[in-house]
Amino acid sequence: MASTNKVPLQARNLPWVEKYRPQKLDDLISHKDILTTIQKFISEEKLPHLLFYGPPGTGKTSTILACAKQLYKDKEFNSMVLELNASDDRGIDVVRGPVLSFASTRTIFKRGFKLVILDEADAMTQDAQNALRRVIEKFTENTRFCLICNYLSKIIPALQSRCTRFRFGPLSPDQMIPRLDYVVQQESIDINPGGMKAIVTLSSGDMRRSLNILQSTSMAYGKVTEDTVYTCTGHPLRSDIANILDWCLNKDFTTAYKQILQLKTLKGLALNDILTEVHLLVHRGTFCFFFLRGKRSYLAVICNY
Ligand SMILES: Nc1ncnc2c1ncn2[C@@H]1O[C@H](COP(=O)(O)OP(=O)(O)OP(=O)(O)O)[C@@H](O)[C@H]1O
Ligand SMILES: [Mg+2]
Prior knowledge:
By secondary structure, the chain is an alpha/beta fold. The chain is built from 14 helices and 9 strands.
């Protein structure tokens, strides 16, 4: 469980996303069904080729790195694991070169298979993916492949069918909050419930984003509250959005336009963010209609916002 995840001394200067990257499969806080299945594959030494897909910051890279750490000792890690990510070249030459030579050579010192991790595999060219089909099949006895991507549709069907697929969905607030609480406790952060709620709302299931927001807000403002979180991320405050909606509904066009423009300039808000937030607010709200002195005017009553 997360609370047992001790932070090594040398991790002190790292950004929190790396400092608190799960080191063991048990440290991961979500997708328990996937983790149990993978644990079983490993303990029975029947690991298939894997394909992890899903939105960013949901633990795909962390999961395979934790698996690799469980499979291999530190000193054999470099000889048994080849990790390629978007920073490496992703053309056909890489498949014909480093991947092929790594997969085709056997190690004398260790029995079992090697592991090739192709992170951000959706950035691989079609040619490279086609070339990989044969390599995967030919060296299955010696090597297992793990492909990781955000968009499954960018992986050619032939590769998809050679791998066991696992979808890493966005994390739920119930999963994120205990992990954030743990980091808060470790880093002695001053945070209130509103701040925590704002972080969870803004990160929409992306654990990496939530840790980044927590770190930047606590460094920039000291105290993590709803307002500091929204200000730090450059997001419009909820009160500003409520005001904007109120002006749109209750003021005449020219006044509402002027006031919104003024607020936008004063707080440096992006029009895109305003529209997104107003849209969300309208969806979440319940409206009451009032008729005052013969003149129709609306009052928005907001629920769950
Ligand atoms: N399930 C999880 N449990 C605990 N921490 C997590 C989890 N998922 C993500 N994190 C945190 O977020 C960081 C990023 O996670 P990771 O690199 O595994 O995401 P990813 O799914 O590979 O994202 P991307 O698709 O952008 O590569 C980790 O270092 C860790 O701190
Ligand atoms: Mg990743």
